Fold this protein.
Amino acid sequence: MKEISKKVCLLGDFAVGKTSLVRRFVLNIFEDRYLSTIGVKVSRKTVVTPGPGDLIELTLMLWDLAGSEEFDQVRASYLRGASGAVLVCDLTRPETLTSLLTYADDLLRVSPQATRLIVAANKLDLTDQRRISQDELERVATRLNAPLYLTSARTGDEVETLFRHFGQMLVGEGG
Amino acid sequence: MLEEGQRLSDGLADDPAALDSALDDIRSILLDSDRQQARELQAKLDELERRVEDKDALTAIITPILSDAIRRNIRDAREEMIEALYPILGELVVRAVTEAMRDLARSVDAQMRSSFDLGALARRLWLRLRGVSSAEIALREALPFAVSEVFLVHRESGLLLWHVSRLPDASDDSDLVSGMLTAIRDFARDAFGRSGRQGQLDEIQYGAQRILIETAPHAYLSVVVDGVEPSGFRATLRDRVHEIDLAHEAVLSEYDGDPTPLASVEPVLRGLITAPTATRTGLSQGQRRLLLWTAGILGGCMLLTCGLGVWGWRTVQGLAAPPATLTPSPSPTPTSSPTASLTATLTPTVSPTVTSTATPSATPTRLPTTTPTATASATPTPAPIIGVMTGAAWVYSGPSLQSQRLPVYIDRGQSVVILARAGTWYRVRWSPPGEAEVLGWVPAEWVGATSPLPPGLITPPP
């Protein structure tokens, strides 16, 4: 089985749940405090996914980037060499959805090859606080040309599915 | 007033109960405060007793007091404290320093023993010429140094390209380490390179371990080391990473996450791994090679001495014997061997005054004759026919493939002495350096003779 690795960035505003999504998906060895120290924490998850002709053992190197103004200048270098990104917004905060367009622009400017994007609308478990409609989500996802998943890092809803789908996107044709 | 007191006293005398009550009142008035103080003192005493019995509490109380007292004492009476503590601390320090010096001496000894390769000697000579003393060289070389892990990392993505480790149970998290290392590099560059200053993070230190980083256009090397690296090690790292970068430029510039095309870097990275030098006690490769050569030369000298001894003894025996005629060999094979060996035969040019035409194979036979046939000059010896192997060939015991194949293989380019020809085979003598001489047959097609063979050496095919 062919083994490949890909760098993937998690982008989104502060407290949308990027770190929680990663924590739900992978087992970390680095503590979360790295994120607040240098603005990034690297995690890893290996998935087996069908590739062109054969199964592929894909190692996703997940770069969880701090969603904070403080790290804006530093973040650009962290985006280099990425194959794609998981764009995360918070269903209870509408402004976090529109930010995704900016994050995608930043990413493509630094890493033009990072064309694989996927949107995670997180905190699905906070049903009564939800303030973003399905239509709004789909509009942004369409503009980004990215699949959309409604996730909950707390309950684990759709987290695994999202990352597996993203893995397929990365090793698929041209990935 | 006195009268009233007297009356009250008389009344109390008549009533004992009233007297007691009155006395109690008086006691109460006089002793109340004392009793209160006594109760308070008792309570304090109980509390103190409790604290004294509770060791932890007692320690917590007296520790700051004692610490403060000691601190003050050290500050105010430094000389006295030193004098008081010297017998204890001095001995400890001396013991620790002695142990460290002994370790260093062992390291220097081991280094001196294992540093006989020519490269090291040349380096030492160069350093000596530049004014560095032998002791300083030995001390520097004895400093411990070991490379435990080498990471080759894709510069842009931080993906691990290749990893080698000296430790058999190395962590599987090398890809995570390379990712975080890249993040730290990027962070340092962004944090300190904003003002236009160019630079790279080229070293991270953690305790006794350091991570040395050398960067090429598409990849960088991270090497985890213990101790002080020898001079030139950085340059070696730089050379290696640039060589790798150049050799795999196409893969690295468009890296797709598949490290398979980079498998050839494994021996290069493995070559950077070194064991701890200070604990190295075995022979170095150069030292082993030197010993092997010395043993070979000594062995050769012994063989030569034995051969000469036998020859001398036989010569003396021959001279001391009654007049005799040494018969020539039935087959006057030229035997002037350039090398000494046990199979070398007595040469026909021993001395111009002795009639010696000893044979390569037969012991001289003394014939009882009174007419010596000694000749004043040696029999002319044909020059040896030198051949060069034009191809590698096995050596056979006879001039055919059906004969026994000897466990000897002569490589292309080796020189041999052609002794005879039988059909399409040459009988050759081959003298590999440091090894026993070999006599046998090889196919003539693989031997290029440097001159034509005399007809006497050619026999018809068997």
